[in-house]
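Ticket #4471: complex job returned nothing on first submit. Input attached below:
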Amino acid sequence: GAGVSQSPRYKVAKRGQDVALRCDPISGHVSLFWYQQALGQGPEFLTYFQNEAQLDKSGLPSDRFFAERPEGSVSTLKIQRTQQEDSAVYLCASSLGGITYEQYFGPGTRLTVT
Amino acid sequence: DQQVKQNSPSLSVQEGRISILNCDYTNSMFDYFLWYKKYPAEGPTFLISISSIKDKNEDGRFTVFLNKSAKHLSLHIVPSQPGDSAVYFCAASGTSYDKVIFGPGTSLSVIP
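Support reply: We reran it on our side without changes. The output follows.
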């Protein structure tokens, strides 16, 4: 079966541009997570959805970051007015349930802001 | 203030020998721990987990040990194989959390 897919795989944006990153979770997975991974670091939690409800957005670094999952499946992470410090790999993961369920990660989107 | 620490950025081991990857955490509220493995240009994949009610969990060549009093866990890979060469992330969570906190990772190289 298909795993978690993310698109685009690579994105180059000029500073100040808006970007939208897409995540297609595994069908039937209730939970969806977004992480930001800087070079040489581990994934850092951004936000968490259970179905269409965004239960935790405490990791979003600023109000320029916005995530949605309107129908409880596909999710989009939007970054407005991108800055150089936003350059990172953005990982999406999905799972059958809560935290103790295995999270399946997508390959990530590498965002470079020039 | 890193809540999950992996103090060895890299580790090299001969094929067939044991690999031991270490992890320390600071938050005593964590009660669920995971190890993920990551190859270049791929997302992390789940390897093994342990709940705080246990001190050991084994799955084939992989064993995770948890020492709650020391807030320390370790992943043992025996015997190590070249295909095990990857970055290993230690992660922690808890029943009172809805997020997983990852460490910075340890890059393991298994030399044939």
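The interface with chain A takes residues 4, 9, 32, 36, 41-46, 49, 51, 89, 91, 93-95, 97-105 of chain B (CB under 8 Å). Closing as resolved unless it happens again.
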